[in-house]
Design a protein that fits this description.
The protein is built from 4 helices and 2 strands; from the N terminus they run H-H-H-H-E-E. The chain is mostly helical. The protein has a two-stranded antiparallel ribbon. The chain starts with a helix and ends with a strand.
Length: about 120
């Protein structure tokens, strides 16, 4: 063996002992930090894929905007304006559609109570 290889072995032995610390304390700290880092990266990746899945769900992207009865006559104008191509491109939505609810009063057998049911008129 040459003195060069002896020096390398001695250097690596002493320096590794110094870097690892007493009872490998520094090594355990490093392993703990790396483990937490990999858990955080995995959690972030899973969260992003879950968010992507939820954001592409059509039922999540469906927004209901109630229009008061006083403005019900203007519903078609609202739809036409909101279906403009420049607004669709700017706000990234597909289509605006409408439906209307109305309430049907109904009586019970005893006629002491009145209930109402929500419905959509046929066209």
């Amino acid at each position: 063996m040459s003195t060069h290889s002896d020096f390398k072995r001695l250097f690596h032995h002493r320096e590794s002992r110094e870097l690892l610390g007493e009872s490998y304390r520094n090594l355990w700290i490093l392993i703990g930090i790396l483990t937490l880092t990999f858990f955080a990266i995995g959690f972030a990746s899973g969260s992003l894929s879950y968010l992507d899945q939820k954001m592409n769900n059509p039922f999540i992207r469906w927004v209901t905007l109630p229009i008061p009865a006083t403005d019900a006559a203007q519903t078609e104008r609202f739809k036409t304006e909101l279906n403009a191509p420049n607004l669709k491109q700017e706000y990234l939505y597909d289509t605006i559609s409408s439906f209307s609810n109305y309430f049907l009063p109904s009586n019970t057998k005893t006629d002491s109570e009145k209930t109402s049911c929500a419905g959509e008129p046929s066209k």
